[in-house]
């Protein structure tokens, strides 16, 4: 895996994990599963000892201090500071324009949880091998439930022992269609983890989104370094169209491939997803608190508290979060609406 460059994308604020996730301490930088933050865990999965090159972190001004505090020595890491948010196609292009054209990029979100780091490394190696042959590769996350909140990837013909052509990109399906995907067994979740050579990604971006490619190239050419930081030109970057890498490149290229990966992945996209990633007792309950927590006759309840005593009786499928002066209580069915709370929107 020599030469694989981890590109860690640090953006977003995780409003659906309010009140724990806030502007002052966003989701990627919280120890939501285990002792390390999600960002620290993403870095740890790509060690130099495992054949990875020094990482490139793409982030914004609001998260720069968090990145640098948790990056530590950094091992030669480069931090690209986006002057404005222009979505993932532009963010990845910024990193690509700072790398040799033959380099293989492994693009990873900074705020996902992967329970099996060894399985991740195996899938990354397989994806990098395909990328060396000119494929633009997604890691297809093993679907374990009929999720309606994820996009799906359909496996086509095999192109290696572990890789397949991507036969179809499917937007978030309704429940009945998601159940059919799970039963068919050839659909994986699209987890937003990609591998491709710099030259192949930039060629496809230029072909399908020439304004993004040209605008990012100009912003990089006019940008400047500040130690380990790189600052693209703000005026040029502000004119770059905003688009996701899926829409801009992956759904348009004729060289899309996927490598299935069963690695205990979760996007930790809401409180229910976090609860599923945590250790639970025989009743499905989980509690994490610096104070006392007591549950009586409860099932599938998550309690998170930064101090105050929490007592819960006779509830099922409920999330209770106490953070300072803020208390948030929701059913499992309501977790997707947490980000709509005024507290979350004005965090």
Brief sketch in words of this structure:
This protein is α/β, with parallel strands linked by helices and 347 residues long. The chain has helices at residues 38-44, 61-71, 87-96, 117-132, 175-184, 198-208, 210-221, 234-238, 245-250, 271-277, 342-345; strands at residues 4-10, 56-60, 78-82, 104-109, 113-114, 136-141, 152-158, 164-170, 187-197, 224-226, 229-231, 256-261, 265-266, 286-289, 293-296, 299-305, 310-313, 316-323, 326-331. It folds into 2 domains: 4-266, Spore Coat Polysaccharide Biosynthesis Protein SpsA, Chain A, CATH 3.90.550; 271-345, no CATH class.
Please, could you describe this protein's structure?
GO terms for molecular function: mannose-1-phosphate guanylyltransferase (GTP) activity. This is Mannose-1-phosphate guanylyltransferase. Residues 6-282 form the Nucleotidyl transferase domain. With 347 residues, this protein is α/β, with parallel strands linked by helices. The protein has 2 domains: 4-266, Spore Coat Polysaccharide Biosynthesis Protein SpsA, Chain A, CATH 3.90.550; 271-345, no CATH class. 29% of the residues lie in helices and 30% in strands. A 5-stranded mixed β-barrel has the order 6-9-7-8-12. A 4-stranded mixed β-sheet has the order 14-16-18-19, covered by helices on one side. Helix 3 (87-96) crosses helix 7 (210-221). The mean pLDDT is 94.
């Amino acid at each position: 895996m020599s030469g694989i460059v981890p590109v860690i994308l640090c953006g977003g604020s995780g409003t659906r994990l309010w009140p724990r996730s806030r502007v002052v301490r966003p989701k990627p930088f919280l120890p939501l599963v285990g002792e390390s933050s999600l960002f620290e865990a993403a870095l740890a999965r790509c060690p130099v000892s495992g054949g990875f090159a020094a990482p490139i972190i793409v982030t914004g001004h609001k998260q720069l201090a968090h990145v640098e505090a948790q990056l530590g020595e950094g091992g030669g890491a480069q931090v690209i500071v986006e002057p404005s948010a222009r979505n993932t196609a532009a963010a990845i292009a910024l990193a690509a324009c700072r790398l040799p054209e033959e380099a293989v990029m492994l693009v990873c979100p900074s705020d996902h949880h992967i329970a099996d780091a060894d399985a991740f490394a195996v899938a990354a190696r397989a994806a990098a091998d395909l990328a060396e042959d000119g494929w633009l590769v997604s890691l297809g996350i093993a679907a374990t439930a009929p999720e309606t909140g994820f996009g799906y990837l359909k496996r086509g013909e095999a192109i290696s022992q572990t890789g397949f052509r991507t036969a179809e990109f499917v937007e978030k399906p309704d429940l009945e269609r998601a159940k059919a995907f799970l039963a068919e067994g050839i659909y994986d979740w699209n987890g937003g983890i990609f591998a491709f050579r710099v030259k192949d990604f930039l060629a496809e971006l230029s072909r399908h989104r020439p304004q993004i490619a040209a605008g990012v190239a100009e912003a990089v050419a006019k940008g400047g370094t500040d130690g380990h930081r790189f600052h693209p030109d703000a005026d040029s970057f502000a004119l770059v169209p905003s688009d996701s890498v899926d829409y801009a490149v992956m759904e348009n290229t004729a060289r899309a491939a996927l490598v299935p990966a069963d690695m205990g992945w979760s996007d930790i996209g809401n409180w229910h997803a976090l609860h599923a990633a945590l250790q639970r007792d025989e009743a499905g309950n989980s509690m994490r608190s610096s104070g006392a927590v007591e549950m009586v006759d409860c099932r599938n309840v998550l309690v998170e508290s930064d101090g105050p005593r929490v007592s819960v009786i006779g509830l099922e499928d409920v999330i209770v979060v106490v953070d300072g002066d803020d208390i948030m209580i929701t059913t499992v069915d309501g977790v997707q609406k947490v980000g709509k709370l005024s507290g979350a929107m004005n965090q």
